[in-house]
Amino acid sequence: MKRVNLNRKQNRKDRHLKTLRKYRTIDNGLPRLIVTKTNGHIYAQLIDDEKNITIVSSSSLQLKLKNGNKESCAKVGEDIAKKAIAKKIKKINFDRGGSKYHGRISTLADAARKAGLEF
User: Fold this and answer.
1) Residue 91, by phi and psi: left (phi above 0), alpha (psi -120 to 50) or beta?
2) In Å, how far are 23, 31, 35, 46 from 89, measured between CA atoms?
3) N or C: which terminus of the chain has fewer CB atoms within 10 Å of its end residue's CB?
4) Cα angle 58, 64, 69; round to 5
5) Mean pLDDT score of the chain, rounded to an integer?
6) Please, are residues 58 and 86 in contact by the beta-carbon 8 Å criterion?
């Protein structure tokens, strides 16, 4: 039977596992910037996989932004980049969390790049 767009959650999980597998095989020691989005907000965390700790985090809730639209995503991207650079981290791996790279995800990534992160 042909797969229909009924398994949207499973498709997102499959995409996320594919990117995780890629980062684990590369194993370059860089922290991962994980982006999670919901209908109302967006969250970003910088995680060190070797030590299993969260280095810095930012979200539209922490910044007290009303929603997770593109303008809010840009502010979250700038904030996470500033926090990472303050901890002397410039190079990272970008993990989009299985979401497609467009819209709010790409806006956050572009804002983080403009603020000084390299990925």
Assistant:
1) beta
2) 18, 9, 17, 10
3) N
4) 80
5) 89
6) no
